[in-house]
Amino acid sequence: MTHPNPPGQYPSYPQQQPGQPYGQVPQQPHPGQPYPGQPYPGQPYPGQQYPGAGYGYPGQDPYAMQRPPLAGWGSRVGASLLDGLIGGLIPMVLFVVGLVMMVSAAKDTTCDSYSSSSAYQRTCTVDSVDTGAMTTGVIMFLIGTVAALVIGLVMLYKQGKTGQTWGKKIVGISVLRERDGMPTGFGMAFVRNLCHIADGFFYLGYLWPLWDEKKQTFADKIVSTVVVRTK
């Protein structure tokens, strides 16, 4: 007579799961269905994020939660004035010196004036010119023009690389990309500077940060930049 189980062996019963009533056999999942406590295929485990998800609430821009405070209108005006003073001081001195030398190069000037029934007229004639002073004045004027161009490009490079010009660094503000908070680079800094032409119509674009939610000028909106405080 054969026994259903060999001697010394007992039939195996399914193990009892914690929290399951005694004697109840655990149900097997349907094909393709995960075991209890396991996520569906492609679904993250509890406490894990979906691939590529950032910090914060679902669908929320992670950079927006840690973005520095936006710069006020007054600090932006102050930075612009400082940039104009620092960047334009040397070229302005060269312009003035060159202009004075060119005017003083005219040594002898004769002026004739006469009146008629219709108007009073005055004509002046330069009798002699100091060519050395005139040449020096023209050279100074040209050097001032080149200096203004070079200083302007250096400031754009600094703003594109670090977000700050000399004036912006003193005031404590920075120009950054709105999407990720990084500096714009030289190319977009140059484009943003050109877009200030749109701000110049009745100065409306320069005044727009006073009531705009993101405190942006028209140029900021065109190239998607924001100006934030750094200190």
UniProtKB/TrEMBL annotation:
Stretches the record annotates as Disordered: 1-58
Keyword Transmembrane: yes
Major localization listed first in the record, in broad terms: membrane
Cellular location(s): Cell membrane
Protein name: RDD domain-containing protein
Domain RDD, residue spans: 70-222
Pfam families xrefs: RDD
Transmembrane segments: 85-106, 138-157
PANTHER family: PROLINE-RICH ANTIGEN HOMOLOG, PROLINE-RICH ANTIGEN HOMOLOG-RELATED
Keyword terms, alphabetized: Cell membrane, Membrane, Transmembrane, Transmembrane helix
Membrane-protein topology: Multi-pass membrane protein
Chain intervals with Pro residues compositional bias: 28-44
Amino acid composition bias (Low complexity), ranges on this chain: 10-27, 45-58
